[in-house]
Amino acid sequence: MTDVLRRGRVSLAFGFLVQGVAFALLVTRIPAIQDRYGVSDALLPVFLAAVPILAGVGSVTTERLVKRVPPSRVLRWSQPVVLLALLGVGAGEHLAGLGVALAAFGLAVGALDASMNMLGVSLQRAYGRSIMLGFHAAYSLGGIVGASLAWVGAHGELALWVSYLPVVLVLLPAALAGSRWYVDGGGRPVAGDEPEGEPSAGSAAGENGAAGLRWLVPLCLVMTVAYIGDSTVSNWGAKYLQDVLGSSEQLATVPYNVYMVTTLLGRTVGDAGVRRFGAVAVVRAGALVAAVGFAVVAGAPGAWVGMLGFTLLGLGLCVLVPQTFAAAGRHAFERHGPGASDTAVARLNVFNYVGFLIGSPLVGALGDAWSYRGAMLVPMVLVLVTLVYARSFAPQQDRYGDGHERPRTADVGRGSNGL
Length: 419
Fold this sequence. Notes:
- By secondary structure, the protein is mainly α.
- It has helices at 3-27, 30-37, 44-65, 71-91, 95-127, 132-155, 160-178, 203-210, 217-244, 254-277, 279-299, 303-317, 320-336, 338-369, 372-388; strands at residues 183-184, 188-189.
- Helix 1 runs parallel beside helix 6, helix 6 (132-155) runs antiparallel to helix 10 and helix 8 (203-210) packs across helix 14 (338-369).
- The model is unreliable at 191-209 and 398-419 (pLDDT under 50).
């Protein structure tokens, strides 16, 4: 494995970590943002829904953009926009300013999520083995760091901009410096990008294959289900533990932290599991563990059993999203070429936000109309849908019937620089 690919892997993992920090700093300080701008409870859902909607727009735009410029360039410039938009959220004074900052954050996050997963998929293809879960483990680690920094800011009663400014001052130049080593599809470093305005390699294949992506539908369903589960934990975990299971207010803050830590642990070892047992087996196991986790949460007699359920949810759900991106990119590349791989990842990324938009309102509506215990059974049933589509995660080429991914030597390290 070349030094170029190793540096590309490390720099991209750092990009995932930075994104995790930025997103956690935003979502964990929503009450403080609401207080700073005087956002009413009725208006807050509008602002919160606008971010994933605009992120979907950013992802779709990136699908078209990467036919003209490499994904590495999109990632290089969207990450600073995310960080500056975060600072804008903390430093603004008027409601209109908050709207502009959140709009910029949402659009840039969509471009960022799409482009960094494109690079992750292409790097995994160059490596010839599963490394995608490791990138998402870096994102989980960033989420833990961001949530911890947010706690420090809230505990110290610091102004939002005071909490955000040091983070942006450290991460923005570091992310720009690290972007020098991003590697595009086929092992091309950023220095080898095609000039802006010329079609990137494989874009013709991507355009021709874009209409033939009906096979992507099962993976889009899995992505939606995974984020319904994730948003259920992040938005309802604390309320469920306190209101339904009778925990203290302090203990109610723990489930999300437990979920994030177990997500990090699961993703850290997940690539080894994929290499040993295959993507299909890992996805099936993850779906089953997540379903058991929701069942435990729904039937928990008390807070500590509920905590066990959230632990299982982290271990189960953590493998689904990275493997869905990896499967989409791999199948598109095998069917239509590298341009189609980027198209598939961008389209799949939209369903990240679809699941996020559906999950929280769905559980809330069912909880109010029925019961929150019963509401937890709905994502349990939905996550079991993944079992129906598990075979979609098996490689198309070199399929041995067991879902194991066999690296194709011809693809490893192939690129314009001979890597």
